[in-house]
Design a protein that fits this description.
By secondary structure, the protein is α+β, with helices and mostly antiparallel strands. The chain has 13 helices and 10 strands. A hairpin with a 6-residue loop joins strand 1 and strand 2.
């Protein structure tokens, strides 16, 4: 006879009673709990396979459960009565090499999903987002950003001239965007330009003043339009939110997920474009500039001037904080037809 101590859950009430299960050599069993005894047949007990040292819950014929952490005694009973002692999960869990391999595989799979899967999902979601939703997000983002900006002080004729140049860029862009060029005094942001998902592009007065020729500003605007048509702002914000939601799901705080989604406009305002997004926007600008016979060196000159003014480590978009300016300049110069001279200077 083997005796196992544990707890009884009768399956009908929330009560838990101290219990003892005795299994005899002839295959009969007796369960004692709360002063009452229950005669059983061992073959009628549902004993799950062992998984490490987790609690074993033995199913009773009447729907109750006998719960015990004494896995060794349960295993001894199974040995005597010829039932399978350890399941495949327990065997795997008991081998540290397999455990380490499984953990490494899970980490690798999670990393690949974060690097490849989430961006792919974000791209799909961004391009499935309606124009109305884009406009709503952009309005909320602009309201947040305007807390840091002052109205533009550029003369109206200068604004109109740049808006006319901007109209010439967006006429070639994809349909479905409410393109608009706005101006703000940058303040601490300084010389900069950035785009919102709806098609609104904002240029600071400082950037206009820093440019030595209009072609430099046009090149910047073409870059920002590239961010719009490839939906970089929304894709980056969705990626960041998906990653945060994934972490929330892992740690189990599901109540925070809805708050993360609701905070998407804030995430959009604070998003940092990835290097891949910057390259894609540069390629868009290059294609437009080359088609219209404008030397991409104009963008190079303004990038160099902006980097010098900001003390290095600067990229063209306000939403980008991890630039690769040297790499971008090298790629832009490499795209120039051979034999082109320096187009710098007004």
């Amino acid at each position: 006879m083997i005796e196992v101590a544990g707890l009884l859950h009768d399956g009908r009430t929330s009560r838990t009673l101290d219990a003892t299960l005795r299994v005899y050599d002839d295959g009969t069993a007796r369960l004692t709990a709360g002063g009452a005894e229950q005669n059983l047949v061992f073959a009628d007990l549902a004993i799950p396979q062992r998984l490490g040292n987790t609690t074993r819950r033995v199913g009773l014929p009447d729907g109750g459960q006998f719960e015990t952490r004494d896995n060794d005694r349960i295993d001894s009973i199974l040995d005597i009565h010829g039932s399978e002692r350890h399941g495949w999960l327990h065997r795997l869990e008991s081998r540290w090499g397999i455990v380490v391999l499984a953990a490494a595989t899970a980490i690798l799979a999670g990393g690949l999903f974060a690097v490849k899967g989430i961006p792919a999902l974000a791209r799909t979601a961004a391009f499935a987002t309606s124009a109305e939703t884009n406009a709503l997000l952009a309005r909320g983002t602009l309201e947040l950003l305007d807390q840091s900006f002052e109205p533009s002080e550029l003369p109206e004729p200068r604004k109109q001239a740049l808006r006319a140049a901007f109209d010439g860029i967006v006429v070639d862009a994809s349909e479905g965007y409410a393109f608009e060029l706005l101006f703000r005094t940058g303040g601490l942001v300084g010389a900069n330009a950035f785009a919102l998902p709806s098609g609104t592009v904002i240029v600071t007065d400082e950037l206009v003043e820093l440019a030595e020729r209009d072609e430099e500003i046009v090149a910047v605007l073409a870059h920002e339009v590239g961010h719009v048509v490839h939906r970089h702002g929304l894709r980056q914000a969705i990626q960041d939110s998906l990653l945060a939601v994934g972490i929330v799901l892992v740690v189990g705080d599901l109540s925070a997920a809805s708050g993360l989604v609701a905070a998407l406009p804030t995430a959009l305002a604070e998003a940092s474009f990835s290097r891949d997004f910057e390259r894609e926007a540069d390629e868009h600008a290059l294609a437009w500039l080359e088609f219209h016979g404008i030397d991409p060196v104009h963008l190079v000159h303004l990038l160099q001037r902006m980097e010098a003014e900001q003390g290095g480590g600067f990229d063209i978009s306000f939403l980008s904080t991890h630039p690769a300016t040297d790499e971008r300049i090298e790629r832009l110069l490499g795209a120039r037809p051979e034999g082109d001279g320096d187009a710098g200077g007004p």
